[in-house]
């Protein structure tokens, strides 16, 4: 149904809007609000990424109506993640340019992740898939795992950060990302190989 196609984008806007609204309400100063908006919009984008990252694996491991729908809408979930992470980028740029400047070298890894995000978004159509052939799959596999790695490094660093305020999200999301990788590996090399996605 057409409305199902737009559901992932509604989720992306709702999560991002909630994150920004909560940051503006919670931050005692403009600087704090900008920092929280950048941090929380990244959290809002993470579940959208994980749905995209795991859609085919979940269907292989547990074929059913729900996982089949996730697989069929994987492209929309991926584009919804690109939308949510673009909102995060806007919040991050406000934080960096107005309140907390950072050396350009520290932003290089994230910049490459955004390059992958937008390349994958631009090629998330049948015409690009036909034109690129096997390179389409290579781009999307490498891009997905590079983004996964950036998330893992970011949250893994927070798990051992000198400021204990970062520990909860780091110790929650870094293991979650490792579990997601384990699911993909099990679906690819383990029992899930018997059920290939349609």
Map the helices and strands.
Layout: H1 2-26, H2 30-61, H3 65-72, H4 74-99, H5 108-122, H6 126-132, H7 134-159, H8 167-189
Provide structural commentary:
This protein has 198 residues and is mainly α. Helices cover 82% and strands 0% of the residues. The protein is built from eight helices and no strands. Helix 6 crosses helix 7. The longest helix is centred in the first third of the chain and has 32 residues. The protein is globular, with a radius of gyration of 18 Å. It starts with a helix and ends in a 9-residue tail after the last helix.
Would you kindly provide a brief summary of this structure?
The chain has 198 residues and is an all-alpha fold.
Helix content: over 70%
Distance between the termini: 19 Å
Quickly count the helices. Answer: 8
User: If you average the pLDDT, what whole number results?
Assistant: 91
User: Low-confidence parts lasting 5 or more residues at pLDDT below 50?
Assistant: none
| Helix-strand sequence | HHHHHHHH
- Gross morphology is globular
How many DSSP E strands?
A: 0
Rg, Å, rounded: 18 Å
Estimate what percentage of residues fall within beta strands.
under 5%
The helix/strand class is: mainly alpha
Largest sheet: none
């Amino acid at each position: 149904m057409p409305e199902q196609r737009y559901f992932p984008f509604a989720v992306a806007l709702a999560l991002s809007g909630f994150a920004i609204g909560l940051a503006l309400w919670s931050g005692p100063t403009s600087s704090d609000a900008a920092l929280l908006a950048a941090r929380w919009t990244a959290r809002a984008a993470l579940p959208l990424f994980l749905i995209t990252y795991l859609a085919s694996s979940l269907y292989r491991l547990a074929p059913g109506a729900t996982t089949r729908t996730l697989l069929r809408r994987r492209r929309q979930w991926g584009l919804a993640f690109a939308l949510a992470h673009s909102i995060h980028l806007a919040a991050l740029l406000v934080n960096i340019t107005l309140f907390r400047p950072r050396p350009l070298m520290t932003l290089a890894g994230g910049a490459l992740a955004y390059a992958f995000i937008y390349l994958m978004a631009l090629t998330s159509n049948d015409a690009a898939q036909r034109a690129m052939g096997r390179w389409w799959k290579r781009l999307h596999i490498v891009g997905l795992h590079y983004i996964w790695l950036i998330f893992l490094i970011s949250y893994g660093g927070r798990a051992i950060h000198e400021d204990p305020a970062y520990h909860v999200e780091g110790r929650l999301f870094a293991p979650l990302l490792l579990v997601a990788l384990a699911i993909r590996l099990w679906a690819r090399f383990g029992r899930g190989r018997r059920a290939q996605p349609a």
